[in-house]
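Good morning,

Attaching, inline, the backbone tokens for the sequence recovery test we're adding to the shared suite. The designed sequence is right after.
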């Protein structure tokens, strides 16, 4: 006797399947849920039909990558439990190719199912590639990381090819049991940096070292991304420098007043016949000479060693910074720096 829940689900799904147009219009995610419900109710024939529709449906919105994996896993499990093992293994092969890292939950699916999946995993050689979506690479010094996973152990080669298909650098060639992280320094095998353009990162699964099975190809675009040159440093302004010789100004503070006072005493006395004429001339001369002596004692024009040393240090520091900028700008102009943009991976069978 069919349980009430199973019978009710069978009736609803049977009515649903009588209307193909409605089935086609239903969202794939809803079909997936109904197919899993039918599987859990042990309605394997019904589950197979619904899950196949879910996996193959082109209705909107489409299944996500995770939903598609779930649909294929349940569909394969359904075929195993319907004793359609060959069909199940083929479905599992499609799942392995879709995601070589996928592993079924062994608490959900019985050993018969997981053993069939393990067989497909063991016999289906596939690789998945993960690279940064975008990265600036400095040829010869940066590191571009490439992560690889395989469905099961086999020989893998990894190359970067140009648009003509010519290999410019081989990054890996050997057995791979699980996963590996590769790095590329941005240089071709010749030791030079590749020019801007389109390239392909190709990871190939091999039966032997000379017999490819299938490849995963990641389209790459290299665009020049030169560093901007540094601005030339501004020379130190005069206001930053100290006077290197003594100024005449302090001496003039003695000379000018003394000269003015001396002249004021001497000149009137020269045209006068007064009895203190000689005294005024003598006093004026003394004042004038005293001003001249004061001017001389201030040592105008004499070098100031400590100021000269300070100014030399300022000029030396500017020259050093200028040379550093010039050297760095030359380095930047010679630097091979490019932006690597990766597209969506594509699987290609055979060569």
């Amino acid at each position: 006797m069919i349980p009430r829940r199973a019978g009710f689900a069978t009736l609803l799904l049977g009515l649903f399947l009588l209307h193909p147009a409605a089935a086609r219009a239903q969202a794939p995610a809803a079909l997936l849920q109904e197919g899993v419900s039918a599987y859990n109710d042990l309605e394997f024939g019904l589950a197979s039909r619904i899950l196949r529709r879910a996996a193959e449906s082109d209705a909107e919105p489409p299944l996500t990558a995770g939903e598609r994996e779930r649909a294929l896993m349940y569909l394969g499990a359904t075929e195993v439990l319907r004793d359609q093992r060959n069909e199940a293994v083929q479905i599992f092969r499609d799942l392995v190719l879709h995601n070589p890292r996928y592993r079924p939950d062994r608490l959900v699916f019985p050993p018969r199912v997981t053993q069939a999946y393990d067989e497909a995993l063991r016999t289906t050689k596939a690789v998945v590639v993960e690279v940064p979506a975008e990265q600036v690479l400095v040829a010869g010094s940066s590191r571009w990381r490439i992560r690889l996973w395989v469905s099961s152990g086999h020989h893998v080669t990894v190359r970067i090819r140009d648009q003509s298909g010519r290999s410019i650098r081989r990054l890996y060639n050997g057995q791979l049991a699980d996963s590996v992280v590769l790095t590329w320094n941005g240089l071709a095998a010749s030791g030079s940096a590749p020019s801007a353009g389109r390239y392909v990162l190709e990871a190939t699964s091999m039966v032997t070292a000379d017999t490819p099975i299938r490849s995963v190809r990641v389209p790459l675009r290299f665009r020049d991304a030169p560093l901007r040159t540094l601005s030339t440093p501004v020379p130190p302004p005069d206001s930053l420098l100290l006077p290197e010789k003594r100024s005449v100004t302090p001496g003039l503070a003695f000379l000018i007043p003394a000269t003015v006072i001396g002249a004021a005493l001497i000149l009137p006395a020269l045209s006068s016949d007064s009895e203190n004429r000689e005294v005024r001339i003598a006093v004026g001369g003394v004042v004038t000479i005293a001003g001249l002596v004061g001017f001389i004692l201030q040592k105008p024009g004499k070098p100031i060693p400590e100021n000269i040393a300070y100014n030399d240090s300022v000029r030396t520091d500017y020259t050093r910074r200028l040379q550093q900028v010039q050297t760095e700008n030359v380095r930047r102009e010679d630097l091979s720096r490019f932006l690597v943009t990766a597209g969506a991976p594509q699987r290609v069978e055979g060569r």
